[in-house]
Specification:
It is a single chain. By secondary structure, the protein is mainly α. It has one domain (7-153). Helices cover 57% and strands 0% of the residues. It has 6 helices and no strands. Helix 1 (15-28) packs antiparallel against helix 2 and helix 5 packs antiparallel against helix 6.
Length: 155
């Protein structure tokens, strides 16, 4: 599937590079943040299987996880501690589906990623064959947001 990827995220669209960035982020992280990183990394692996390897979404949708995110959110974890600075205004985001993200907070991006994963888990089993849903586009939108988060938290 051809995906329009902003230049600032191109390097992260390679599975190997994204996974290295997860490793670097996890090495800098502490405590609860490390569990969230592991969950995001696993989710990206599953979404990559769908987008890059042709695995059917029905095979992986049940493996996507929002458990760590919900646990942290319910405990009042401050997702801003992951990166206090707002998302940079990368010029290559202009004119893309990510154009609205510069200036927004880290917590907003993380919440958006998990809202979209949760929605996928809820809706897909019931409306998998409905033509009104472009499941491939939804998978790629989540992947791009995860890449943007990786770019944002990069030191």
């Amino acid at each position: 599937m051809d995906v329009s990827i902003p230049t600032v995220l191109k390097a992260l669209s390679s599975a190997g590079t994204a996974m290295k960035e997860f490793g670097a982020w996890k090495a800098r992280a502490r405590g609860d943040e490390r569990a969230l990183i592991a969950e995001l990394k696993n989710n990206l692996h599953y979404l990559d299987l769908v987008a890059e390897d042709g695995v059917a979404l029905r095979e992986v949708v049940g493996k996507l996880s929002v458990t760590e995110y919900k646990k942290l959110a319910n405990r009042g974890f401050n997702f801003e501690t992951i990166k206090k600075k707002s998302i940079d205004n990368y010029p290559s985001l202009a004119g893309t589906d990510l154009a609205a993200w510069p200036g927004k907070r880290t917590s907003e991006l993380i919440e958006s990623i998990y809202d979209k994963i949760n929605e996928l888990q809820i809706k897909f089993p019931y409306v998998e064959k409905n033509q009104n849903y472009r499941w491939g586009a939804r998978v790629n939108n989540i992947r791009k947001r995860i890449w943007l988060l990786l770019r944002h938290v990069k030191k």
